[in-house]
Structure formats: C-alpha cells, structure tokens
Amino acid sequence: METLRIMLVDDHALFRQGLKSLLDARPDLEVVASAANGNEAIALARECKPDVILMDIEMPDCDGIEATRQIKQELPEVKIVALTVVDDDETVFEMIKSGAQGYLLKDLEAQQLFEMLEGLRRGNPPLSGQIAAKIIEELTSPASTAEADTPEVEPLTERELDVLRLLVDGLSNKEIAQALTVTENTVKTHLTNILAKLHVRNRIQAAVYAATHGLVDPPDWLD
C-alpha cells in the first residue's frame, strides 16, 4: 500500500510529537512535516506537498481556517482534515467552506484515527459523529434549504449522477473510473462539473448535498 504522507499543524508541541510517534509507527503512514501555526503550515505545504494535513484551528498568527483557505487555493489536491477540540457550529461550517475534506475532534481513539485516514485514502470524508450530525442538521434546516436553492442548481447528467452515487459510496477517483470503465481524467472532469452545478466546493459538500436533497441514497457515514 502506498504510504500516506501527512503534515501535522498544531500549536502544542507535545501533541504534535505524540501524534507523530503514533502515526510513524504505522508502515502505511509517514509524518513528513510539522507546523506550529497557520503561517508555518502554508510555507511547509508549498515545500513538501503532503497528501494530507491534519489541521488544528485555534492557533496564533494564522488560524487553521485561514491556513486551510490559502493552502486549498494554491494546492487544491492536498487533503486537509481539521483535528481540533473546537466543535461550535460556526467554526465547523467555516472550516468545511474553506475547503477541508473532514473534521475530527481530538477525543477520538487512535484506532478511530487510523480508520478515518484509511477511509480518506478511499475517498470517504472523515467526520466525527457529532460533526456529521451538525452538518446534516444545518443542511436540512429550512433556512439552509432556501439558501441552497439560490443560485439555482443545474440538473446533472445521467453520467454525472453515476459518478455522484459512487462518490457518496466512498469510492476514490480511480475506483470510480474502474467501475464506470472510463479514465481518471474523465472522472475528474465529471467531478468538476458536479461541484460547479451543485455550487459546492468539495466532496463532503457534494455528498451531503446529494444525500440530503434526494439525489442519491444517504451514505453510511451520515447514519
């Protein structure tokens, strides 16, 4: 299995060191960089281009939300997952809107973290249970539904719906391509079109929107 290259961003050195030891003990995971704040994270992301960034939110100089926004603008292929103690609604939704692919709380067990990272490798957005519940509640509320209807959502083609169903099931781009007998570039093109038509920024938002608006059956991670 290809090694997942991870960068840690947290202003607590002891937490970073402990998490690095935990992750480096796994043969399929490697911590390639650590940063103490958002500014360091932006600079190191440019330098080492990790596969995944585990991002704290409340940090000095530049917080995790702003760091996520800037990194995703420059390096959209890098997956960013919040790893934090902060679980208030405003912060959760602002982090997701900034481009984060997942949101985890620091009270999770080590094995849960490993499973979440493995799911991320397959394309499943890693979400702590209470965070998934917050997202569902927000996106199914009347106010959010009204907001989601503006601007108008364009209808998806049958092939785009096929891609969306497989995305919601947690398949990676490569697995979607194999399932539909197309190239990965074709899948990426369809995903770009899907995000644009649904007016969402990433796979989490696309999956939640699709499930909560009846485009596809709800995924297991929203149960």
In words, what does this structure look like?
The chain has 223 residues and is an alpha/beta fold. It has 2 domains: 4-137, Response regulator (Rossmann fold); 151-222, Orthogonal Bundle (Arc Repressor Mutant, subunit A), CATH 1.10.10.10. Helix content is 53%, strand content 12%. It contains 11 helices and 5 strands; from the N terminus they run βαβαβαβαβααααααα. The protein has helices at residues 13-24, 38-48, 64-74, 89-97, 110-122, 129-140, 142-148, 158-168, 173-180, 184-198, 203-212, and strands at residues 4-9, 29-35, 52-55, 79-84, 102-105. It is globular, with a radius of gyration of 17 Å. The two termini are 29 Å apart.
Rounded radius of gyration (Å): 17 Å
Q: Which sequence of SSEs, written as H and E, runs from N to C?
A: EHEHEHEHEHHHHHHH
CATH architecture of the largest domain: 3-Layer(aba) Sandwich
Kindly state the number of beta strands.
5
Please name the fourth-level CATH homologous superfamily of the largest domain.
Answer: Response regulator
- Largest sheet descriptor: 5 strands, parallel
Q: Provide the CATH top-level class of the largest domain.
A: Alpha Beta
Distance separating the two termini: 29 Å
Fraction of residues in helix: 40-55%
Task: Output the CATH topology of the largest domain.
Answer: Rossmann fold
Mean pLDDT: 85
Query: Structural class of the helices, strands and pairings?
Result: alpha/beta
- What topology, given as strand order, has the largest sheet? 2-1-3-4-5
Counting copies of identical and different chains, the oligomeric state is: single chain
Count, helices: 11
Shape: globular
